[in-house]
Write a structure and sequence with these properties.
The complex is a heterodimer of chains A (286) and B (165).
Chain A lengths: L6 E4 L3 H11 L3 E4 L5 H6 L7 E4 L9 E4 L2 E5 L4 H5 L2 H6 L1 H6 L6 H4 L4 H7 L5 H8 L3 E6 L2 E6 H4 E3 L2 E2 L6 E8 L5 E8 L9 E10 L2 E10 L6 E2 L1 H6 L7 H14 L10 H20 L3
Parallel strand pairs in A: 1-3, 2-3
Antiparallel strand pairs in A: 4-5, 5-10, 6-7, 6-10, 8-9, 11-12, 12-13, 13-14
Chain B lengths: L3 E8 L2 E8 L4 H8 L18 E4 L2 E4 L12 E3 L1 H7 L3 H9 L9 H14 L5 H8 L10 H17 L6
Parallel strand pairs in B: 1-5
Antiparallel strand pairs in B: 1-2, 3-4, 3-5
Helix pairs in contact in B: 3-6
Classes of the chains: A alpha+beta (286), B alpha+beta (165).
């Protein structure tokens, strides 16, 4: 359980990262919090020739509000997100999601951008990013570009990040009046990856939900936006019948992939359970 | 030969400069280079919590951080905490409550519980369970550990005048 040998560079500018990528190609890996990469290296699933430590890259730090956008630096650690009043106010979903990630001793090191770039389909951050319609700010030697979360997550651990790219920051539309965020997941033990999880946003008023976005995780090769379920809740005050229709509509949104813990049928059932809980919580503003 | 780099860090209040192989974890650095063996190495992939230390004040897995990443950091291990006397009551509560049997998880448990009690002086049993969910114990069934942490919180609350914390 020891990593194989590698070289190490702690960079202080994005230009240094681009130069190292140009020299090492895909033999170089960025290390952020290292809470996924280091175990992969210990098990020798990953054996990069060079680790590029971005922990001192100013461009990747900080949480700031610019008008109707919240900008979160990719290197922001979970613990910083959790204690940020700005995040709690502007992105309540994110604030509520952090305690579900692993354990306190992991959250002290792991980073927001690291989780997004890793794109584990069972983890919370990619689902939150999709629910919040986040935009990824990506830089490479040629310049900067923005990629919507819907286009960013492309498959199992696959993202729109190309060789030589660095995820710099994430921009999230600030939650407007009454926009709520709720997350629920079913886990075997506290801190485990979710068997099925659901991150949702929406505005509740007079028993109705406007603009809900339901994003399931742990059900496929990437976070899944359940549009049919949302449509089933569109008309009128939400009744138990509406919720049942939305739960049934999930079958049109996705067929879960099974894993070692759960069959596809079990996951489909758990997804329906979570949808019912989350709709209730959104309606109750909590 | 592994490449090595010099790092400057503070361990239990003592600043030092050491040359570290880049692939050496903080846990191995503490144990092998500094002889601080209270930090235990269990799973070596971030699951068991036996290697929990504090990096810049926050609990972290010493097996999931390379020593080289700790350049400029302040590390606190169980040795530092125990020698300072600041968790003597917690250690005694673990003893009194039989909150350990083999003792392998105990240093990680103590380091974790110490942070909890600093930040949340009167945690509920649920909150205690939540924070130690990242630390495996294969002996006690956890109840005695929760008891010991809870008892320490209660005793500290009684011994300090209102508003002192």
């Amino acid at each position: 359980m020891k990593a194989s040998a590698f070289d190490y560079a702690r960079v202080e500018s994005l230009e240094e990262v681009f130069a190292l990528f140009a020299e090492y190609g895909d033999e170089a890996r960025i290390i952020a919090g290292g809470q996924t990469l280091v175990p992969a290296m210990a098990m020798r699933v990953a054996a990069p020739a060079l680790l590029i430590d971005i922990s001192r890259l100013e461009a990747l730090q900080g949480i700031a509000r610019n008008g109707d956008r919240l900008r979160i630096g990719a290197f922001t650690r979970y613990v910083e997100l959790q204690h940020s009043p700005l995040v709690a106010e502007a992105a309540p979903l994110l604030h509520r999601a952090i305690p579900l990630i692993a354990h306190e001793a992991i959250r002290s090191r792991g980073t927001f951008g690291g989780s997004l770039a890793n794109a584990d389909p069972a983890s919370e951050m990619p689902a939150c990013a999709l629910a919040l319609e986040a935009v990824m700010v990506i830089a490479n030697a040629e310049g900067e570009r923005r990629v919507a979360a819907a286009d960013f997550f492309q498959g199992l651990y696959q993202t729109a990040l190309e060789p030589g790219d660095v995820l710099v920051a994430v921009e999230i539309p600030v939650a407007q009046d009454g926009m709520q965020g709720v997350i629920e997941e079913l886990v075997r033990r506290q801190g485990d990856y979710a068997m099925v999880g659901l991150a949702a946003t929406g505005k509740a008023a007079n028993g109705m939900l406007s603009g809900p976005r339901f994003v399931f995780f742990g059900v496929g090769d990437r976070p899944v936006l359940a549009t049919k379920a949302a449509e089933a809740l569109a008309d009128g005050p939400i009744s138990p019948e509406h919720i049942a229709e939305a739960q049934a509509a999930l079958a049109q949104d996705f067929t879960p992939l099974g894993d070692i813990h759960c069959s596809p049928a079990t996951k489909a059932h758990l997804a329906r359970v979570l949808l019912g809980r989350v709709v209730s919580r959104l309606l109750e503003h909590r | 030969m592994d490449p090595t780099f010099p790092i400057t860090l503070t361990v239990n209040g003592t600043e030092m400069v050491r040359e570290v192989p880049v692939r050496q974890t903080l846990a191995d650095f503490l144990r092998q280079t500094l002889g601080l063996t209270a930090t235990h190495v269990g799973c070596e992939h971030g699951v068991c919590g036996a290697c929990t230390v504090r990096i810049d004040g926050r609990i972290a897995r010493a097996c999931l951080t390379f020593a080289i990443q700790c350049d400029g950091a302040a590390i606190e291990t169980l040795e530092g905490m125990a020698e300072s006397g600041k968790i003597a009551d917690l250690q005694q509560a673990f003893h009194r409550r039989n909150a350990l049997q083999c003792g392998f998880c105990t240093s990680g448990m103590l380091v974790t519980a110490a942070q909890l009690l600093e930040e949340n002086p009167r945690p509920s049993r649920e909150e205690i369970r939540e924070i130690i969910s990242g630390n495996y114990c294969r002996c006690t069934g956890y109840h005695a550990i929760v008891d010991a942490v809870e008892e320490t919180a209660e005793a500290r609350a009684k011994s300090e005048p209102e508003g002192a914390r």
